[in-house]
From TrEMBL:
Swiss-Prot/TrEMBL keywords: Signal
Residue ranges occupied by any Neprosin PEP catalytic domain in the UniProt entry: 112-352
Pfam family, one: Neprosin
InterPro entries, per database record: Glutamic_endopeptidase, Neprosin
Species in which this protein is naturally found: Carnegiea gigantea
The protein's name in its UniProt record: Neprosin PEP catalytic domain-containing protein
Signal peptide bounds: 1-37
Length: 352
């Protein structure tokens, strides 16, 4: 039997028993229920997860070696207030975590992967068999690009190792959510199993922040720019891949090392930018980012961006993403990979 540690986040006392407890998250438009953290681990990943405790915090977090002081915001930039997405009453009771209920169609879709019709516009590391990465991060501007049913549009950080993948960012995905809201999301591919959010693979350690939360407000072209920091890194002590969000980092959970093969020890690819999907039969094409092709000289009023594009090196230091290139597989979507003194490595992307 597993033993769940108490969540490090403050949890208010509940008058009602936690078993069977439901939250209708009106502002998040989700139906979540509290699930025993140990049952979640066993149920999603099988009996081979023979561990006595669930790790609630990383053992070894990488260190930053650059001169970045986190005070390099644009004049019209507003970091997302993570308090806006916390459960109002303190969240689930100790030892439980909020999990969104899925229907049978979602259970089926999680094992499907859209290949034809998927377009990326990213800054990415150049392929090299000897380069290893132990994390990726970036501060991404939040938008609400226009899409129709059957399409999606995302902005994200990406790690890959052979056939395994970890992605984190925001998405507008009516295929999955039946709405056009901008939501936080994570996605992984581990040994051929494709998983969104907490469906499988990822272990949530927060009792007060559900995955799939709506990211609001969003940026407007020529107006205020709302941003959020996304960071995925490998624990140097045990190999688990941890996820942090926010300018004052909040640890949401981890992907256990043991579910991966290609990402078990490191990644060989890191990227940051945009992704869209649409079948050829659906028009108009989906917007990416701010819905406009980016300018060569980054214009942060008009373009979606991923600034402070960082990786974790083999010494487990956080460093600027070097040896990168721009990549897009559709001329309707553009990307520029630049270095700016105040904002370090910055990738601007977008189109429609």
């Amino acid at each position: 039997m597993y033993k769940a540690s108490v969540d490090a986040a403050p949890v208010h006392k509940m008058a009602m028993a936690h078993r069977g407890k439901f939250y209708f998250l009106a502002t998040l438009m989700l139906l979540s229920h509290c699930v025993d953290a140990t049952r979640e681990l066993h149920g999603k990943n099988g009996p081979e997860f023979a561990v006595k405790t669930i790790q609630m915090r990383p053992t070894a977090r990488p260190k930053r070696v650059s001169n970045n002081n986190n005070n390099n915001s644009f004049s019209n930039e507003i970091p997302m207030d993570m308090n806006m997405i916390r459960l109002k009453d303190g969240g689930c009771p100790p030892g439980t975590v909020p999990i969104r209920r899925m229907n049978q169609k979602e259970e089926y879709l999680r094992n499907e992967e859209n290949i034809d019709g998927t377009v990326f516009a990213v800054g990415q590391t150049k392929g090299s068999p000897w380069r290893k990465y132990y994390g990726v991060g970036g501060t991404i501007s939040i938008y609400n690009p226009k899409v129709v049913q059957g399409q999606y549009s995302s902005a994200e950080i990406i790690l890959r190792g052979t056939s395994d993948t970890i992605i984190a960012g925001w998405t507008v995905n009516p295929i999955k959510y039946k709405d056009n809201l901008t939501r936080f999301f994570i996605y992984s591919v581990a040994n051929g199993l494709h998983c969104f959010n907490s469906e499988c693979g990822f272990i949530i350690v927060r009792s007060d922040i559900p995955l799939d939360f709506v990211m609001s407000p969003v940026s407007t072209r020529g107006g205020k720019i709302y941003t959020n920091l996304f960071f995925v890194y490998q624990d140097a002590m045990n190999g688990n891949w941890w996820l942090e969000v926010g300018l004052d980092p909040i640890v949401l959970g981890f992907w256990p090392k043991m579910i991966f093969e290609g990402l078990k020890n490191s990644a060989t690819y890191a990227a940051c930018g945009g992704e869209v999907y649409s079948p050829a039969s659906i028009t108009p094409p989906p917007e990416m980012g701010a819905g406009h092709y980016p300018d060569f000289a980054p214009d942060m009023v008009n373009d979606a961006f991923c600034k402070e594009f960082i990786v974790v090196d083999d010494a487990h230091n956080i460093v600027d993403a070097a040896c990168t290139e721009k990549y897009t597989d559709d001329p309707n979507y553009g990307v520029f990979d630049n270095h700016m003194r105040d904002h370090q490595h910055i990738v601007s992307f977008g189109g429609h």
